[in-house]
Amino acid sequence: MMNNEFEIVFRDRDDYDHLLVQIRFKDFVICEISKEEGNEHMKVVMLCDGPVDTELDVQFRLDDFLEVLRIAKEEFSRCP
Predict the structure, then answer these.
(1) Burial 41-51 (b: 16+ CB within 10 A, else e)
(2) What is the pLDDT of residues 9-63, one digit of tens each?
């Protein structure tokens, strides 16, 4: 996507009525965005609560992360 390190993935899960969006960094899922309560009340679930037990370096520029979140929100808002 932006710098080939972030990826936006749309997913369907049985326990949700709507699609989810995952934000991935180098194949590591950082967070999921859901809109079970509508476009105006999207929620982010952070999936990383500590250092990753891997050799993957999960560091990125804040501006890059904010930009991928903005793009994900914009694209997700258009989905039913």
Answers:
(1) ebeeeeeeeee
(2) 999 888 878 889 999 988 888 999 999 888 899 999 988 766 666 677 778 899 9
* 1 domain residue, yes or no: no
Integer angstrom CA distances of residue 15 from 9, 12, 20: 17, 9, 11
Is residue 39 in a domain?
A: yes
Please give the Cα distance from 68 to 80 (Å, whole number). Answer: 20
Q: Note the residue count of the chain.
A: 80
Global pTM reads 0.78
The reported pLDDT for the residue numbered 53 is 64
Domain residues for 33? 6-77
| Tokens found for residue 50 | 């500590």
